[in-house]
TrEMBL record:
Protein name per its UniProtKB record: 4-hydroxyphenylacetate 3-monooxygenase oxygenase component
Keywords: Monooxygenase, Oxidoreductase
Domain of life: Eukaryota
MF (Gene Ontology): monooxygenase activity
Pfam families (UniProt xref): DUF1759
Claim: Oxidoreductase is one of the keywords in the record: yes
UniProt KW Isomerase keyword: no
Length: 280
């Protein structure tokens, strides 16, 4: 049974590694050749999935060998080297995506400036009110969003208030502000849409469909509490306050989701969390 399980896990590990290699190759080609960008964006959406698959499978293999008393057989040097490569592929793919996204944002801003000769307000300097009496009010910067679920509600509420519901802004301007505020996985969600006025509503709805999900938000908040890493070394009041503040924020955000049968959801989450990756 041990041999069968290990063989299956090693195939799974090899498959995930091959996918990560392919994604980083796509990213390198896309940085050099703009015509390769759409293909890279297509596979980039799977990066998190395959990297998580690689990590969890690697950990499962370590556990299997340890339980069998064969810890010296895995990981060996080549396994550690492959793990380091997988992490490097993951980081480089994300870095190349950021490079491409920045270039596209710069190109989009230049195109928007040509299409709309009137000065476009810097996304970091938008004010909440348009009344002339607001001229002395401090300017409010738009939030940034990289795809982390815990950051979504704040971004959604601020962007909706400052931009989406502002009738004085055209959809083209709103789309420009939106694309300038996104990075990482969030930017990937709308990367297939051209920067056109008609696409703004589609882009905003795509973000809502992807991130505005109560259960996934709840999972993120609970993970934030349960995976909190204690400061290494002698505990102090500052670290304790940081922990209490983090827990309180997550609990408050969790309650605001108004999930039906919250206690049952939490119990299920804890039980599911303890399952191994294969059973999940």
């Amino acid at each position: 049974e041990f041999d069968v399980t290990v063989a299956r896990l090693k195939r799974r590990l090899a498959d995930a590694y091959t996918e990560l290699q392919g994604i980083v190759d796509y990213s390198r080609n896309a940085v050099q050749d703009p015509t390769k960008v759409p293909a890279f964006k297509g596979v980039f959406r799977t990066l998190e999935k395959y990297f998580e698959k690689y990590e969890t499978t690697y950990e499962d293999l370590v556990d299997q060998y340890h339980a069998a008393g064969l810890s010296t057989e895995f990981p060996v040097k080549k396994d550690l080297e492959q793990l380091a490569n997988a992490k490097r592929y993951y980081k480089q793919s994300n870095m190349n995506f950021e490079i491409i996204s920045k270039k596209e944002a710069d190109d989009a801003a230049a195109a928007a400036a040509q299409r709309f000769p009137a000065p476009i307000v810097n996304p970091g300097n938008i004010t909440v009110t348009s009344d002339t009496r607001s001229s002395n009010l401090p300017r409010i910067s738009l939030p940034k969003f990289d795809g982390q679920y815990t950051a979504w509600p704040k971004f959604r509420d601020m962007f909706s208030s400052l931009v989406d519901k502002d009738d004085k802004l055209s959809n083209m301007e709103k789309f420009h502000y939106l694309s300038s505020s996104l990075s990482g996985n969030a930017a990937a969600v709308i990367s297939h849409l051209a920067l056109e006025e008609a696409n703004y509503a589609i882009a905003w709805q795509s973000l809502l469909d992807t991130f505005d999900k109560k259960r996934l938000l709840a999972n993120s908040y609970l993970n934030h509490v349960l995976q909190f890493k204690q400061h290494v070394g002698k505990p102090n009041s500052k670290d304790l306050l940081r922990y209490l503040s983090s827990v309180a924020d997550s609990i408050s955000a969790l309650k605001l989701l108004n999930i039906t049968d919250l206690s049952e959801f939490i119990l299920f989450f804890i039980a599911f969390r303890n399952l191994d990756s294969h059973t999940k």
